[in-house]
Amino acid sequence: MAEPIIQVEALSKLYALGKVGTGSFRQDIKRWWLSSVLKKNDPFFSETGAADDSHIWALHDVSFDVKEGEVFGIIGSNGAGKSTLLKILSGIINPTRGIVRGRGRINSLLEIGTGFNDELSGRENIYLNGYFLGMQRREIKKKFDEIVAFSGVEQFIDTPVKRYSSGMYMRLAFAVAAHLEPDILIVDEVLAVGDADFQKKCLGKMQEVSSRQGRTILYVSHNMQSVISLCHRAMHLQKGKMIDIGTSLKVVNAYMSRHQQKRYRQSWDDINHSPGNNFIRVNFVELIPHLKNADDPVDIRTPITIRFKFWNLIEGQNICVGLHLFTQSRECIFDVSSTPQEFRKGLAEGQVDIPGNFLNDGSYYFSLIFVKDTSVELFYLEDCLSLEVEDYRENMNWFGKWSGHVRPKFPFRVRQLAHAKEAVPGS
Amino acid sequence: METIFDLSQTTSSKKSWAWEIKPESFWWKGQFLQLWSYRHLLLRLVRRDFLIHHQQTLLGPLWIVFQPVIVLIIYVLIFEKAVGLSTDGLPPSLFYLSGIILWTLFAECFTGTSFTFIQNGSLFGKVYFPRLIMPLSVMLVNFIRFGIQFLIFFVMLLVVDPRQVIDHPLRWFSAMIFSTVVVASFGLGMGLIFSILTAKYRDLVNVIHLIVRLLMFATPIIYPLSIVDPAFRLWVSLNPMCPVVEFFRFGFMGQGTFTGVQLLYSAGSTLLLVLAGSLLFNKFGNRLQDVI
């Protein structure tokens, strides 16, 4: 078993809220008077935590180990304390309490292109950025050509970077970062910028760094797919507290099923208060994802069944029910309907099966429409169900957004026809 | 079971940790020791400053020379011709120019470093390096600028009164080294302390320019100390830069009002100021990151 290379113990960080500035001098004096002169407990650090509502624990009692050669993911929603944790680990800010122990050279990439100056040439910026990131002169000199080649801006290396396109700028910035050789690399959401191609390059490089060079990486991302495929283990932070730690797959799945925007069931037992009108009333609507494991998130492979029940209030009404599926941006993906048929007064039920490998990842909303005689709208139950479909990729090295609203798995075959040596017309 | 085993192992191998991050910040530990390994960053920053300032400009580095020369012309016109202020019997142009370049060195070191945290807030928030590198690079840049301006002064002196330079090589050389180091360090020391204060209390930004302006009148830049009423002279000499400027003029032109004790006082107080400034800077540098 590999030795831990970083050990974080009971790490906490307290931040003052509200405006800093006016009155802060008086507050500082008061605090100094109380804690240093009168030797009372500092009023800002009560043992119970953020009892004072003018302060917030950005991190509260977080402990974990990262082992040598491990890629460790940190996930959590905005404001969970991820960046605070990375800043403490990088030595940029001090914790309020707790301790971090470690070994080896640590480099952090909280942003790419730190210290870049627009007026300077690409060459100057490589050096400046490299030094800011803690590289040594011989290191940069040795890798200079490699960095330039990786960035693909050879021709413009002596042009001020303000004349670069944003893509070139980013590639150059990442190229410097990619050639760092720390023992521990801290990466914060570098992939949030750039196009799919750029992201692919970044991830590929990170994979190479961790697997081939055996470096330890701490990686923060909102891209769950990349966390699963890059990281061995992961940690979930929520409001400054660590609520989950373990293998990345387990942690990410738990995180996603906790955070999915979903409404799987709505039911109204009282006919008088259920949605509808004098013709029709809805009893319940339900969405059932067919998962192997109840805790798994719904992903693009998951088949779904929609079930609903309604009360028909008019004897012998000819009804046809339609199911509409919308994307988050209110585009309709499909509109399927039942065969029209006559119903007697009373309860009726229906079911629609949506196969797996059909929807792309994203948020979706279902609406139900009840139509009389295939032409008159009786009732429209808008957005009664919603679900979030997660991405799933197998044997894939690309993590950009898959395009399209649907992602069907049609039979797709490509085969070799003739060997090039035998027949290439016109050669 | 496994976690218990793990813990006992880490406590036993505690000594193998290479570094620790703790809530406390240190007066001298940490950053000071790392300065050397970041020396190339320091030099790059100096280079950056020159490149940025003189790229896409009409006259480029010539501005370093023009500025003091233009100020000199105005000083000579106003203080010498119009007001008729004494210059201690020294050639007015050399008298004023020596004051101007020394004062520029101090003022630029002071104002250039006193906004370190405000100007570099986002950079400091993104990457770790010894923060002292920033003010040190500012001081270095201004040293180089001073060097160029000094050449003008030196050439003028050679034209006007070459005997001073040829006859007393040790005198002018020691005066140059001593005075410039004290003046620049005094600026740096003040700047370091003010950089912490301005980060915390933004309104102090206004105070800095005021200090520079007022302090100039308390320093014999446009007047010689000899015309100051002897009753006030002691008070004026409390300003560590006062004897230093006089010493500089004495070194090059043989005329100045100062004593050895005063020079020692200047050097000692400046050393204390720089020491206090850099210790405070080191201690509070990281803590300020929460405030900016």
TrEMBL record, chain A:
SUPFAM superfamilies linked to this entry: P-loop containing nucleoside triphosphate hydrolases (SSF52540)
Record domain ABC transporter: where: 38-264
CDD domains: ABC_KpsT_Wzt (cd03220), Wzt_C-like (cd10147)
Keywords: ATP-binding, Nucleotide-binding, Transport
Cellular component, GO, one term: membrane
Pfam family, one: ABC_tran
GO molecular function: ABC-type transporter activity; ATP binding; ATP hydrolysis activity
Membership in a protein family: Belongs to the ABC transporter superfamily.
Protein's UniProt name: ABC transporter ATP-binding protein
Top-level taxonomy: Bacteria, Pseudomonadati, Bacteroidota, Cytophagia, Cytophagales
